[in-house]
From TrEMBL:
Residue runs in coiled coils: none
Chief place of localization: membrane
Annotated keywords: Membrane, Sugar transport, Symport, Transmembrane, Transmembrane helix, Transport
Protein name: Major facilitator superfamily (MFS) profile domain-containing protein
Ranges for domain Major facilitator superfamily (MFS) profile: 26-478
Native species: Hibiscus sabdariffa
Cellular compartment(s): Membrane
InterPro entries named among the record's database cross-references: MFS_dom, MFS_STP/MST-like_plant, MFS_sugar_transport-like, MFS_trans_sf, STP/PLT_plant, Sugar/inositol_transpt, Sugar_transporter_CS
């Protein structure tokens, strides 16, 4: 079978440019945008196991948990209001990423980040002082709006700033800060839960103001990307910026291609409708399926509910929070591995290896939980070694995700969209991601209650499907400049039928030099 996924014949382009300190620092600051997302993912699971928090806002869940002590463990946290607390945020993020796509296109990536930071800050403030459930939900919706803006703009910003040879590594800075955010949240929950007086949850929720401030201030000092400046007509400034970013004077070729890409994108009046054109079929497919599959790995079952899950399988509250810290550390460590490997081993290798690793672990965890809890959900006494085995395999699973679908779920979409559809396609990516984060968060506890240990097999099934999909349908994108990306579809066994020479007369570029050659957008 020709070119299932290997790198195509190449584009022959090699833009000069170094990994300058300027671009490195800029990307680190921008990547901090991931902190707000990560902090939130990590904080909610822990807070919802804190007794004072449950007593204050979700009394019925707490009473049920108390009364149920010796009965069915699978169902003790099953409450739609409690899951609504966790998942309302993702609905808001879904909606806001659509608005954010217009802002990122018209006002730039930087301003989107600023809005993200401010909205998130307000949400954190309301949550920290919450007196009633409605305040919690309103606060979380504001957090969600913030995340929608940040997740829309940060990955695009990073991919546009980075020299293409280091694009993978720099872009994964975003995922790294997501994982650091999750870990910090887990550690804080662990300590705040111990505060006498039971108001530690206020610190946990209000603490989100800190990452919000980091991204707010960060966005004020960051430069705009050359792509975005050109898109908004500031060509001279864009060229100067490109020289500064790349650390060389000879940026003519890259600059010309950026301008050409921008001219094409200006011809597009309806970026959304445009996405439906046949030649964007591969992009649209990836914008939908990659985030869908990322969430169907089941990762957020662990991220949101690790403490709940661990206490379900018999850990005391404290040990359950501690185990969440352990998975958090593994998550950060394994992300660093992908930063190291992504531009060396490529995206496909990581996707496929991670898939196999997750699959094995899901099968083992399902077997372990099934063996002890059966279908009644009543385990009797659990030996210590048993809990250790479960935590170990959950950690190996998290590592598998953290060097594959975690970072690549954000990297690959942000690098494959041509400029004329980039903002719109990215917002589809973010919306689908948030939609399925919402679905998983909302139905997980109910699914656990009904599917029992089979829940892990449900996600394992999807891991098989997604790995087969990657094998056949995702071309390798490592080491290809963004402006040249169409080449990879043209040389792909399946996608080549959609992306024809006619569409890209300039040897696989999105447009002819100086914007010629594209008539039908
Ligand atoms: C995903 C999140 C997930 C996180 C875990 C991200 O890439 O989008 O849903 O919680 O990784 O590290």
């Amino acid at each position: 079978m020709p070119a299932v996924g290997g790198i195509g014949p190449g584009t022959g382009k090699d833009y000069p440019g170094n990994l300058t300190p300027f671009v490195t620092v800029t990307c680190i600051v921008a990547a901090m945008g991931g902190l707000i997302f990560g902090y939130d993912i990590g904080i909610s699971g822990g807070v919802t196991t804190m007794t004072p928090f449950l007593q204050k806002f979700f009394r019925s869940v707490w009473e049920k948990k108390e009364a149920d002590k010796s009965k069915n463990q699978y169902c003790q946290y099953d409450s739609p209001t409690l899951t609504m607390f966790t998942s309302s945020l993702y609905l808001a993020a879904l909606l806001s990423s659509i608005v954010a796509s217009v802002v990122t296109r018209k006002l730039g990536r930087k301003l989107s980040m600023l809005f993200g930071g401010l909205l998130f800050f307000t949400g954190a403030l309301i949550n920290g002082f919450a007196k009633a459930v409605w305040m919690l939900i309103v606060g979380r919706m504001l957090l969600g709006f913030g995340i929608g803006f940040a997740n829309q703009s940060v990955p695009l910003y990073l991919s546009e700033m980075a020299p293409y040879r280091f694009r993978g590594a720099l872009n994964i800075g975003f995922q790294l800060s997501i994982t650091i955010g999750i870990l910090i949240a887990n550690v804080l929950n662990y300590f705040f839960a111990k505060i006498k007086g039971g108001w530690g949850w206020r610190l946990s929720l209000g603490g989100a103001m800190v990452p919000a401030l980091i991204i707010t201030v960060g966005s004020l000092v960051l430069p705009d990307t050359p792509n975005s400046l050109i898109e908004r007509g500031q060509t001279e400034e864009a060229k100067a910026k490109l020289k500064r970013i790349r650390g060389v004077d000879d940026v003519d070729e890259e600059f010309k291609d950026l301008v050409a890409a921008s001219e094409t994108s200006k011809l597009v009046e309806h970026p959304w409708r445009n996405l439906l054109q046949r030649k964007y079929r591969p992009h649209l497919t990836m914008a939908i399926l990659i985030p869908f599959f990322q969430q169907l790995t089941g990762i957020n079952v662990i991220m949101f509910y690790a403490p709940v899950l661990f206490s379900t399988i018999g850990f005391k509250d404290d040990a359950a929070l501690m185990s969440a810290v352990i998975t958090g550390v593994v998550n950060v460590g394994a992300t660093v591995v992908s930063i190291y490997g992504v531009d060396k081993w490529g995206r496909r290798f990581l996707f496929l290896e991670g898939g196999v690793q997750m699959l094995i672990c899901q099968a083992v965890v399902a077997a372990c939980i099934g063996a002890k809890f059966g279908t009644s959900g009543n385990p009797g006494d659990l030996p210590k070694w048993y809990a250790i085995v479960v935590v170990l395999f959950i950690c190996i699973y998290v590592a598998g995700f953290a060097w594959s679908w975690g970072p690549l779920g954000w990297l690959v979409p942000s690098e494959i969209f041509p400029l004329e559809i980039r903002s719109a396609a990215q917002s589809i990516n973010v919306s689908i991601n948030m939609l399925f984060t919402f679905v998983v968060a909302q139905v997980f506890l109910t699914m656990l209650c009904h599917l029992k240990f089979g829940l892990f097999l449900f996600f394992a099934f999807f891991v098989i499907v997604m790995s087969v999909f990657i094998y056949y349908f995702l071309p390798e994108t490592k080491g290809i400049p963004i402006e040249e990306m169409n080449q990879v579809w043209k040389s792909h066994w399946y996608w080549s039928r959609f992306v024809e020479d006619l569409d890209y007369p300039n040897g696989g570029m999105e447009m002819g030099k100086g914007g010629q050659g594209v008539k039908e957008v």
